[in-house]
Specification:
Blueprint: H1 2-17, H2 20-25, H3 27-37, E1 42-47, E2 53-59, H4 61-70, E3 74-81, E4 89-96, E5 102-110, H5 115-129, E6 136-139, H6 143-152, E7 157-160, H7 162-173, H8 176-186, H9 191-204, H10 206-215, H11 217-220, H12 236-244, H13 253-276, H14 284-296, E8 301-304, E9 309-314, E10 317-322, E11 327-328, H15 332-336, H16 341-349, H17 364-370, H18 388-391, H19 475-479
Parallel strand pairs: 3-6, 6-7
Antiparallel strand pairs: 1-2, 2-5, 3-4, 4-5, 8-9, 9-10, 10-11
Length: 480
């Protein structure tokens, strides 16, 4: 039955989305039409000398413009496997807008995650974005990514995902606590907090402490990063893209590229409409963060030093806020470019509008500008008008093929993500087993309709449920 369903799916997919051979041949025409309909779009198609496909890169002009003008300079890069006939890998470069939404920048397609493919993808990305000041990359600890960034973006800062780093620690040391403490140290805004958590980790597990130190605190710690990571500590924005394309990753390559273009077209339209309807000067996400911090201001004591400098006290601690320089000794203000609760307390003392303290990244007008350029469709291939030299370009199937066996539908789940719950086979409730069950038996619709009441063992002396003959109170009486 499974084989029939599998073969039926393999038969239906080419009818709906085209064959792999056809779509590879149409890649050059698709790239031409895509750039005609969306001027400024960057594409790159690489083939071997014999015409076999090697790489394909796509970055829409709307994404390039929005990132360069209105986005925090932090890019998460990741790779994920393709599930089509010829396999391969999809490379993703993603950012996050001021409303904490996933913002795709570029996509690439190659044979696997190796040094050559990552270097090619990053070179295409540099060609699309140009030079970005204070640029930060976030990725997992893949050696090819680190080598490619250091070669192609020598001026950028490469950091690692705290979640992946924590998962590696759990596997290595078989303790969840070491990863939790590391994550707290990584997200610390001050060196005092960082040192406190690191000392806690050293006392708990010296080997884990040495492991994170050898990895380089500047790679995973916010406070030691040479550039600002803002509120981005993981590559979750890139993982979300992989999840959105779970079905599309089994489609032919050109169909997958068109699926991505159509998805971004809808995202840009819906987000532009939603941004225009926002009621605050900040984005909804930024406004929510500020409101939570404003609630803490009621319990703080503010003393003015001069017109711009304030001393803020709360729960026996003290911070110094400088409104002119937009700094606070807690370091949260200058690292996120969002005012902390201490800054908001000082701003309220001067009746200052807190939105003026926020960076433009988090403002509603900026979000509208990010999605102001729509992404245009390319139409059906039968309507394309392409120059003869482009249409005649030969693009053959790649040399790589998918491995035999059933393809993996989802990613491998780590041991720390697996949860096991014990369930009673008598009542079906979790948390206990049948020998300690005091609940009524469950009723099943099937051959075994009702579990009898005397399912549990009885005492062989007094025939009472709940104990055995070893603990029976009538044991001595029966012996006599």
């Amino acid at each position: 039955m499974y084989s029939k369903a599998h073969y039926a799916l393999q038969y239906a997919l080419p009818l709906s989305y085209g064959t792999h051979e056809e779509t590879f041949q149409l890649l050059s025409s698709f790239a031409y039409i895509l750039k005609q309909q969306n001027p400024g779009t960057i594409t790159d198609l690489q083939c071997a000398d014999d015409g076999k496909f090697l790489y394909f890169f796509m970055s829409l002009w709307s994404s390039i413009r929005g990132f360069r003008r209105c986005m925090r300079p932090v890019i998460a890069v990741d790779g994920t496997h393709l599930k089509g006939r010829f396999g391969g890998t999809m490379f993703v470069a993603t950012a996050q807008d001021g409303n904490e939404q996933v913002y795709p920048i570029a996509f690439g397609y190659g044979d696997s995650e190796n040094n050559n493919s990552w270097e090619w993808f990053l070179e295409c990305l540099r060609g699309a974005l140009g030079h970005i000041d204070d640029l930060v990359f976030i990725s997992d600890r893949h050696a090819s990514i680190e080598a490619g960034i250091s070669k192609v973006f020598p001026y950028a800062t490469h950091t690692i995902c705290c979640w992946h780093f924590g998962e590696n620690m759990k596997k290595r040391f078989h303790k969840k606590d070491v990863a939790d403490i590391m994550d707290s140290a990584a997200r610390s805004y001050s060196e005092i907090q960082y040192d406190h958590h690191m000392e806690e980790l050293r006392k708990l597990h010296k080997g884990a402490y040495d492991y994170v130190i050898d990895a380089g605190p500047h790679k995973w710690s916010r406070v030691h990063c040479p550039q600002r990571r803002y509120r981005l500590m993981t590559i979750n924005v890139a993982e979300c893209i992989n999840s959105c394309l779970k079905f599309a990753r089994q489609l032919p390559l050109m169909t997958l590229a068109e699926f991505i273009r159509n998805m971004l077209q809808k995202w840009f339209h819906d987000r532009h409409t939603a941004a225009q309807s926002m009621r605050h000067r900040l984005t909804d996400a930024a406004h929510g963060v500020i409101q939570k911090r404003v609630e803490k201001c009621n319990y703080m004591t503010v003393n003015a030093v001069d017109w711009n400098i304030f001393s803020v006290k709360h729960k026996g601690k003290q911070w110094t806020v400088n409104l002119a320089r937009k700094t606070c000794t807690c370091n949260k203000f200058q690292m996120d470019f969002l005012p902390c609760s201490h800054t908001l307390a000082a701003a309220r003392e001067r009746n200052l509008d807190f939105t003026s303290l926020c960076a433009d990244y988090y403002k509603r007008e900026t979000l509208i500008d990010v999605y102001s350029v729509p992404i245009m469709p390319v139409g059906h291939p039968s309507s394309w008008v392409v120059p003869s030299d482009i249409a005649a370009q030969v693009v053959l199937n790649p040399k790589t093929k998918r491995q035999s066996g059933r393809p993996i539908e989802g990613r491998h789940v780590s041991s720390s993500e697996r949860t096991t719950t014990q369930s009673c086979r008598r009542c079906g409730q979790p948390g206990h087993h049948s020998r300690r069950c005091s609940n009524p038996p469950m009723v099943n619709e099937g051959p075994r309709t009702i579990v009898p009441d005397d399912y549990r063992r009885k005492c062989s002396i007094c025939h009472t449920i709940g104990h055995n003959k070893q603990t029976c109170p009538q044991k001595d009486t029966s012996v006599e």
